[in-house]
Design brief:
The protein is of the alpha+beta class. The protein contains seven helices and six strands. It has helices at residues 3-52, 55-62, 68-84, 105-108, 115-118, 120-127, 170-180, and strands at residues 88-92, 98-101, 132-133, 137-139, 142-152, 158-166. Strands 1, 2, 3, 4, 5 and 6 form a six-stranded antiparallel β-sheet that branches. Strand 1 and strand 2 form a beta hairpin. Helix 1 packs antiparallel against helix 7 and helix 2 crosses helix 3 (68-84). The longest helix has 50 residues, at 3-52. 30% of the residues are buried.
Length: 181
């Protein structure tokens, strides 16, 4: 084969390889950015809710009395769930027992949260005082991720955590982009 055809073929292969590598790098960048944005969103929702939980309301809610504190927290978490479109919002005590659950109060409240096993490391980080977002886990209607934010008293002690579960919307977008590239 003539030398100039070998050079042209080599150049074409190099261009194709560079294009493929560039597309893969761009795809990974977009996937990472979408995942980070989702984590930040879920974390902000949990942190905002945790900031609104007062120590007195939490103490009242732990008694499971349908009084002012419990009802205030239930309304807050149900409103959060419906207004943001998250799968669930719950308030857990330091033992990971569900105090208030916006999705299924009858079955969940007073029991150790399923998040203790589904998203245990992230939950424990939040109970130690550091907000966290779990990796994906299987939920009843598909994959979910949970954002956790500590609830603190006036002295800064962790009284519990707010857990917000949400379905990540970015995986289908990333998959579609990968197929397009």
């Amino acid at each position: 084969m003539p030398r100039h055809l070998v050079l042209v073929a080599s150049f074409v292969l190099a261009v194709l390889l560079a294009t493929a590598v560039s597309a893969w790098v761009a795809w990974r960048g977009v996937a990472g950015a979408l995942e980070t944005e989702f984590e930040q969103r879920v974390g902000r929702i949990a942190a905002t809710a945790a900031h609104e939980v007062g120590a007195a309301d939490l103490a009242d809610a732990r008694l499971h009395a349908e009084g002012g504190g419990y009802l205030a927290l239930e309304v807050q978490l149900v409103t959060l769930r419906t207004s943001t479109g998250v799968a669930n919002a719950a308030l857990l005590d330091p033992a990971a027992v569900t105090v208030v659950d916006a999705r299924d109060s009858d079955r969940a409240e007073g029991r150790v949260s399923a998040l203790d096993s589904l998203a245990g490391p992230a939950l424990r980080r939040a109970l130690a005082g550091r907000p966290a977002v779990s990796p994906p886990y299987d939920g009843p209607d598909g994959p979910l991720r949970a954002g956790f934010a500590p609830v603190r008293d006036g002295a800064g002690r962790v009284l519990g955590v707010v857990a917000v579960e949400a379905a990540p919307a970015y995986p289908p977008v990333v998959a579609r982009l990968g197929r397009t590239l």
